[in-house]
Design a protein that fits this description.
The complex is a heterodimer of chains A (about 400) and B (about 625). Chain A is α/β, with parallel strands linked by helices and about 400 residues long. Chain A contains 13 helices and 16 strands. Chain A starts with 11 loop residues before the first strand and ends in an 8-residue tail after the last helix. With about 625 residues, chain B is an alpha+beta fold. Among the domains of chain B are: about 100 residues, no CATH class; about 80 residues, Uridine Diphospho-n-acetylenolpyruvylglucosamine Reductase, domain 2 (2-Layer Sandwich); about 180 residues, no CATH class. Chain B contains 27 helices and 19 strands. In chain B, helix 1 packs across helix 3, helix 7 packs antiparallel against helix 9 and helix 17 runs parallel beside helix 20. Chain B is globular and about 75 Å long. The chains are: A alpha/beta (about 400), B alpha+beta (about 625). The interface between A and B is medium-sized, with 29 and 20 residues. Bound molecules: flavin-adenine dinucleotide, NADP nicotinamide-adenine-dinucleotide phosphate (NAP) and iron/sulfur cluster. The site of flavin-adenine dinucleotide has 37 residues of chain B, from strand 3, helix 11 and strand 10.
C-alpha cells in the first residue's frame, strides 16, 4: 500500500459514529489509543458532541473523550457545511477516512433520501479525501450490495444490476464511486462488507434492534396482545383465531412465517465485526474488498425455534411459499407477515459469500455460530433495553 | 407581567366557564332537557342562564329580582344538565343550580329585598304584541342575554328581552322598536359567541318559533326561526331524509343568516344559498317579504364588508337530501397536510363522497374522547405511535367508499373506527402500536389494508363502553357507559349528521374559530396555517389546525383554524385580542395578494348569498 502503509497510528476521520457499527468502531479505536475526528450531525436538539458523550457513557469510555474532536457536518453541502477556514484546516491534516455514515432504510419511498445520503453525500467525503490527500479511504458497505443477480458473491466489484431495495442499490453505487475515484487519483482504499450485524455475542449488548430483533419483537408484542385477551378479557377473541393457553402455560400462537425458498440468514456479531474491521483497518490492502460474513449462516427454522423457546410460544412454523397464495389463518399471522415483509429477502438468502480477503486480514477468525445461548443473551438485553428506548 | 387569577371556588368557576354553546337547550343525548327551560323558553331558565345568573349574584353584579326567584325555584335539580354539559365540557352545572337555589333561599330567609322591575310603557306595548309572558325587563333575565365569552365583545345589558311567536308579532315588535328608536339584536341560541346577539336596547329571542313543516314532494322543509339543527335533522332522518346543518344547538335560520352553514356535507350539498329554496323575512322597516318574490331585496348578492342585518328571518324552506341505506364512512390517514389536501381535492373533483373533510389531530382526539385527559393521550398516540397527523373523513354510499379503496387509500372504516373509539384508553397505552408506527415509515398505513386487522385491533383494544368511560366522573359513569353502548354514538355517519361532539372543541378552553374560504392549494394553505400558528404562539395561545372541507367540487374549500382561550383570564384575553388583530390583518393581506381568499367575517349576515359570490371574489373585480 502506498500512502496507506502505516495507517495504524495516525488520527482518523470517522463518519457514522453515532450509529451502531460506527459507534463500535469508535470505541475500539479509542481503546487502542487512536485519536479521532468525528464528523456527524446534531439530532433531537442534542449537539454532536453530546450525542457522542452519551455513547461513550454506554461503552464506559467517558475518559477517552480527550482523544476526540467533533465536527458538525452536512455531507450534502459544499465543504461538508464547514466554514472555509475549518475545512481548510481539516484538508491540511490528510487524515485517513473511515466512512460508516449511511441511510440504512430499505423502503422504496425513501429512495431519494437514501440515494442522497449514500451516494451524493459520499461525493463530498471523497472530495475531502482527494483534496486532503488522505492516507486511506475505508468504506463501510454491505454484503448485500452484491444484489440479486448472482448467488456466488465474491470479494470483487458488484456485478448485479438488480437489487432487493434502494438501500442495496445505493451501497453498490457507493462502492463503484469509491473504487473509481480512488483508483483514478491513486488514493488507497478498502471496502468492508458485513452481513447482518447483531449485538455482542458474549454480553448480548447492542445499540440497534432492527434486522434480527424486529421479528422477535413483533412476535413478543403479538403474544402479549393475546395473553392479555386471555387473562383479562376471557380470551374469546383469541379462541376464535385458534390462539390459546397450553397446559404448560405457554401460548399456542399459530403463525406461519412465509419464506420464498429454503435459505439462510447470515448473521455476524458486533464484537466479531469490530475485531475483524480493526484488523483490516490496521493492515489494509489497497483496493481490497472484505466480506465479514458467516460461513455457517443460521436457518429460519432454527431461529423460529429459538424465538418460540424464548417467548414461551408454540405454533410458529416456517413455510416455503408465497404469503399471498395462502389465506391468512388469523390476524396475528397476517400482521406478522406484514411486519417481516422488508426483511424477507434476508431470512431466506441463498447467496454464498466467499471471504478469502477477510480470512487473510483476520487470520481466519470467524463469527461465532448463532446458537440459542447467544440468541437468549441478545434478546434478554433487548427486552431489558426496551428495544432501544432504555439504552442510555 | 401576568395578572394573578382571582381565587374562585369550584362552583363559581363552573358558572363562569359556561361556554354559551347552548348544548343544554337540545336533547342531544336523549336524556331530556331542563323542564323549566322548555316551559319558560327564555335562556335564563335553562342551565346556561342559571350559570350566568349565579355568577352575577355571587359577584353581586345584580340584585335579586322576581325572575331570579322564579328561575331558582323552577329548577328541580333533576341532574339532566350534568349529563349534557359533562358530555361537552366535563363540567357539572347541577352544583351551580343548587348553589343558586341556596343563594336565593338564604337571601329570602334573611329578609333580603326582591327588586321588582320598573314599570315601562314600551314593555307594556311589547306585551300587548307578544303576550305578558314573552317580553320582560327583569334584570335577571336581561343578564343572561348580556354577554358571551367572545374576548372582543363588551357585555351589554338589554333593556328588554322579547320572544315573539309568529311572523306578524316579529313585524309588529320591529315596528314598535323602530317607532321608539330602540336598537335591537336578533338572537337565535346565541352560540355564534362573537358578540353579535347583544344590544343595550332589546334582544329579540326567536326561540319560540319552532314550527317544522315537511313538503317532501318539493324536497323541502319549512323551518321556523326557533328550530335547532339537531331537532330538524332528527325529524328529517325519521323520514329517511337529510338536511345540511352544522352545530346541533344552532338555530337553522340563524345559522344560515350568520355563516351560511358550512359542514363536512358542504362538499356535496354546498353552503349559503345552496341550503334553502325560499325564506320569509321581516325587513328592518317591519314589512314582510319572501326571498323567492321577484320584488324582494336581493339577498343572493354579496358585498365584501361588515354588512348590516338585511332583515329577520322568520322561517326558511330548507333543502332535503336523499339518504341511501348503504351509506357509511372511512377515515383515511395521512402523515402530512399536503397529501391529505391533495386527496380531499381529488375526491371533490371526482365528486366522490357526500361529506369530505381533512381533520387535524386535535379534532379527532377531542371529538372521540369523553374526557380531556383521554383526549390528550389519544392525540399523542395518533401522532407519535400511529404517525397520523391528519385524517380525511369520507362519508358516502357503497360506490363512493369502494372508489376510495380503489384509489389506493386504506382507511379506518366504520367498524374499525368503532373499535378504536371504544378502545381508546387501551390505544393510548398499547405497546404494539409502536411497531405499527415504525412499519408505517416503510409502507404508510399498510396495516389498514389487512383483512384481519379489525379482529386484531378488537383483541388488542378490548373495546367496550365501560372501557371508554373509565375515567369519567364515577357518578356519571353508568349513564355514559349506557350512552356509549348506543351504536350511533360511535358511528361517524350519525355523528357527522348530528354533530353532537364538535362542541367538545371548547372543552378545555373556549374556542375562537378562524374561518376562511380559499382554493385547495397546498402551498397557500400551508402558508396561512403557518401564519395562524406563528401568531398564536407569539402570544402564548393554544392553537391548532381545525378542518378543511372542499367546496364547489374542489375548486375552493372552507378552512377552520382555532385559537383557544381561558374566558376568565384577563391576561389571556388581552393576548387573544392582540392575536386576533394580527390574524385579521394577516388574512386581509392574503386576500389582497391572492384575490381568492375570503374571510368569513364578510359573510356574516350575508349567509343567504350565493356561495359563488364569496368563493370567487375576483368575478366582481375582473369585470
Ligand atoms: C363549537 C362551535 C362550532 C361551530 N361550528 C360551525 C360550523 O361548522 N359551521 C357553521 O356554519 N357554524 C358553526 N358555528 C357557528 C354557529 O353555529 C353559528 O354562528 C350559528 O349561527 C349559531 O346559531 P345560533 O342560533 O346560536 O345563532 P346566534 O348566535 O343567536 O345568531 C347568529 C347571528 O345570526 C343573527 N340571527 C339570529 N337569528 C336570526 C334570524 N332569525 N334572522 C336574522 N338574523 C338572525 C344574530 O343576530 C347573529 O348575528 C360553530 C359554533 C360553535 C360554538
Ligand atoms: N448494521 C448492520 O447490520 C449492517 C450490515 C451491513 C452493512 N452495514 C453498514 O454499516 C454502516 C453503519 O450501519 P449502522 O448499522 O451502524 O447504521 P445506523 O445505526 O443506522 O447508523 C447510521 C449512521 O449514519 C449516519 N447517517 C445516516 N444518514 C445520514 C445522513 N443523511 N447524513 C449524515 N449522516 C447520516 C447516522 O447519523 P445520525 O445518527 O445522525 O442519524 C449514523 O451515524 C452503514 O454503511 C451500513 O450500510 C450495517
Ligand atoms: S357550558 Fe354549554 S351545556 Fe354547559 S350549561 Fe353552559 S351552555 Fe349549557
Amino acid at each position: 500500500m502506498k500512502r496507506g502503509d502505516a495507517p495504524g497510528d495516525g488520527p482518523c476521520l470517522l463518519t457514522g459514529a453515532t450509529g451502531f457499527l460506527g459507534g463500535h468502531l469508535m470505541a475500539e479505536l479509542l481503546a487502542r489509543g487512536r485519536r479521532l475526528v468525528i464528523a456527524g450531525r446534531p439530532a433531537g436538539g442534542e449537539s454532536l458532541a453530546d450525542r457522542i458523550r452519551r455513547l461513550l457513557g454506554w461503552f464506559g469510555m467517558q475518559r477517552r473523550e480527550a482523544q476526540l474532536e467533533f465536527l458538525e457536518t452536512d455531507f450534502l453541502k459544499p465543504g461538508l457545511g464547514l466554514g472555509s477556514g475549518e475545512y481548510e484546516r481539516l484538508r491540511r491534516r490528510g487524515l485517513a477516512i473511515i466512512h460508516c455514515a449511511s441511510d440504512t432504510r430499505f423502503a422504496e419511498k425513501n429512495r431519494a433520501a437514501v440515494m442522497a445520503a449514500n451516494v451524493t453525500g459520499l461525493a463530498g467525503i471523497l472530495e475531502l479525501a482527494l483534496r486532503s490527500r488522505a492516507r486511506c479511504f475505508h468504506l463501510l458497505s454491505s454484503a448485500y450490495a452484491a444484489g440479486i443477480d448472482h448467488s456466488d458473491c465474491r470479494e470483487a466489484p458488484v456485478r448485479s444490476l438488480r437489487f432487493n431495495n434502494p438501500y442495496e442499490e445505493s451501497k453498490a453505487l457507493a462502492e463503484k464511486a469509491v473504487s473509481a475515484t480512488c483508483r483514478a487519483h491513486g488514493l488507497p482504499f478498502t471496502i468492508i462488507r458485513p452481513a447482518i450485524v447483531y449485538g455482542d455475542a458474549r454480553t448480548g449488548r447492542s445499540l440497534r434492534f432492527n434486522a434480527l430483533y424486529h421479528p422477535v419483537r413483533s412476535l413478543l408484542q403479538l403474544r402479549d396482545i393475546y395473553l392479555a385477551d386471555i387473562r383479562e378479557n376471557g380470551g374469546k377473541r383469541s379462541a376464535a383465531s385458534g390462539i390459546r393457553l397450553e397446559d404448560g402455560g405457554g401460548l399456542r400462537l399459530p403463525i406461519r412465517i412465509f419464506i420464498p425458498r429454503e435459505g439462510k440468514i447470515n448473521l455476524v456479531s458486533v464484537d466479531y465485526f469490530t475485531a475483524a474491521a480493526l484488523a483490516i483497518l490496521e493492515r489494509p490492502e489497497d483496493g481490497a474488498i472484505y466480506h465479514l460474513t458467516s460461513r455457517r449462516p443460521a436457518s429460519m427454522t432454527r431461529l423460529a425455534e429459538f424465538a418460540e423457546r424464548f417467548l414461551g410460544l408454540s405454533g410458529v412454523e416456517v413455510v416455503i411459499g408465497a404469503a399471498g397464495a395462502a389465506r391468512m389463518r388469523n390476524p396475528a399471522e397476517e400482521l406478522f407477515d406484514l411486519f417481516i415483509r422488508p426483511y424477507r429477502p434476508y431470512i431466506a438468502d441463498c447467496r454464498d459469500f466467499s471471504r478469502e480477503n477477510a480470512d487473510r486480514a483476520t487470520g481466519g477468525a470467524q463469527p461465532p455460530d448463532f446458537d440459542y445461548a447467544i440468541f437468549r443473551r441478545c434478546m434478554e438485553f433487548a427486552v431489558a433495553a426496551d428495544w432501544g428506548k432504555k439504552l442510555f | 407581567m401576568r395578572r394573578k387569577e382571582t381565587p374562585m371556588n369550584d362552583v363559581l368557576r363552573t358558572a363562569k366557564n359556561c361556554r354559551h354553546y347552548a348544548m343544554c337547550k337540545i336533547d342531544f343525548l336523549g336524556s331530556g332537557v331542563c323542564r323549566s327551560g322548555l316551559e319558560k323558553q327564555y335562556v335564563s331558565f335553562y342551565p346556561q342562564g342559571r350559570m350566568d345568573l349565579y355568577a352575577a349574584l355571587a359577584e353581586k353584579r345584580i340584585p335579586v329580582t322576581p325572575a331570579c326567584v322564579e328561575i331558582a325555584d323552577s329548577c328541580d335539580l333533576c341532574g339532566r344538565c350534568d349529563y349534557q354539559c359533562y358530555f361537552v365540557t366535563e363540567m357539572r352545572p347541577t352544583a351551580v343550580m343548587r348553589a343558586l337555589k341556596e343563594h336565593i333561599r338564604l337571601h329570602l330567609a334573611g329578609g333580603g329585598e326582591v327588586l321588582a322591575p320598573e314599570k315601562d310603557v314600551i314593555l307594556d306595548e311589547l306585551r300587548q304584541i307578544v303576550g305578558n309572558d314573552w317580553a320582560t325587563n327583569d334584570r335577571a333575565i336581561a343578564l343572561t342575554y348580556a354577554h358571551d365569552p367572545c374576548p372582543v365583545a363588551e357585555p351589554r345589558m338589554p333593556g328588554y328581552v322579547v320572544m315573539p311567536g309568529s311572523t306578524a308579532e316579529v313585524a309588529a315588535v320591529v315596528r314598535l322598536l323602530n317607532r321608539h328608536s330602540v336598537p335591537y339584536a336578533v338572537r337565535g341560541n346565541g352560540s355564534s359567541v362573537m358578540g353579535f346577539v347583544m344590544s343595550a336596547g332589546a334582544v329579540i329571542d326567536m326561540g319560540r318559533m319552532k314550527a317544522i313543516a315537511f313538503d317532501e314532494k318539493n324536497w323541502l322543509v319549512w323551518v321556523g326561526a326557533g328550530v335547532a339543527a339537531f331537532d330538524l335533522q332528527r325529524e328529517a332522518l325519521a323520514r329517511g331524509l337529510r338536511v345540511n346543518v352544522a352545530e346541533p344547538a344552532a338555530l337553522v335560520c340563524a345559522n344560515i343568516m350568520c355563516s351560511g352553514i358550512f359542514s363536512t356535507f358542504s362538499a356535496s350539498y354546498g353552503t349559503a344559498a345552496d341550503n334553502c329554496i325560499d325564506a320569509e323575512f321581516v325587513a328592518p322597516a317591519g314589512e314582510v317579504f319572501r326571498l323567492g318574490d321577484p320584488a324582494a331585496p336581493n339577498l343572493f348578492g354579496f358585498r365584501r364588508e361588515d354588512a348590516p342585518l338585511p332583515g329577520i328571518c322568520t322561517s326558511a324552506a330548507i333543502r332535503l337530501h336523499p339518504v341511501t341505506d348503504d351509506e357509511s364512512s372511512v377515515f383515511v390517514p395521512f402523515a402530512a397536510l399536503d397529501r391529505a389536501l391533495a386527496f380531499a381535492r381529488e375526491l371533490a373533483m371526482r365528486r366522490i363522497g357526500l361529506a369530505v373533510a381533512v381533520l387535524g389531530g386535535e379534532y379527532i382526539s377531542t371529538f372521540l374522547s369523553p374526557t380531556r385527559a383521554l383526549a390528550a393521550g389519544v392525540k399523542d398516540a395518533f401522532r407519535d405511535k400511529l404517525k397520523i397527523a391528519y385524517l380525511v373523513l369520507v362519508i358516502g354510499d357503497a360506490h363512493a367508499l369502494a372508489a376510495v379503496k380503489k384509489m389506493g387509500h386504506p382507511g379506518f372504516d366504520s367498524r374499525l373506527m368503532r373499535i378504536l373509539n371504544l378502545g381508546l384508553p387501551s390505544l393510548v397505552s398499547a405497546r404494539w402500536l409502536e411497531l405499527i408506527g415504525e412499519l408505517s415509515d416503510d409502507e404508510p398505513f399498510s396495516y389498514l389494508g389487512l383483512d384481519h386487522f379489525p379482529d386484531l385491533a378488537e383483541a388488542a383494544l378490548a373495546p367496550s363502553p365501560a372501557q371508554l368511560v373509565r375515567d369519567v366522573d364515577p357518578e356519571l359513569r353508568p349513564f355514559f357507559a349506557a350512552l356509549y353502548s348506543r351504536p350511533e354514538m360511535t358511528d361517524p355517519l350519525w355523528l357527522n349528521m348530528f354533530r353532537i361532539v364538535s362542541a367538545r372543541m371548547g372543552r378545555e378552553k373556549h374556542v375562537v374559530a378562524w374561518i376562511i374560504y380559499l382554493p385547495i392549494d397546498e402551498r397557500l394553505v400551508a402558508e396561512i396555517d403557518g401564519e395562524f400558528r406563528r401568531i398564536a404562539e407569539r402570544h402564548g395561545l393554544k392553537n391548532d389546525f381545525g378542518f378543511i372541507t372542499p367546496l364547489d367540487n374542489g375548486k375552493r374549500c372552507v378552512f377552520e383554524y382555532d385559537y383557544y382561550l381561558d374566558q376568565n383570564d384577563e391576561d389571556e384575553k388581552s393576548r387573544m385580542r392582540q392575536a386576533m388583530g394580527e390574524a385579521g390583518m394577516m388574512i386581509e393581506k392574503f386576500t389582497a395578494a391572492t384575490g381568492t381568499v375570503t374571510w368569513i367575517r364578510h359573510v356574516f349576515r350575508q349567509g343567504f348569498s350565493r356561495k359563488e359570490s364569496f368563493l370567487y371574489p375576483g368575478a366582481a373585480a375582473g369585470r
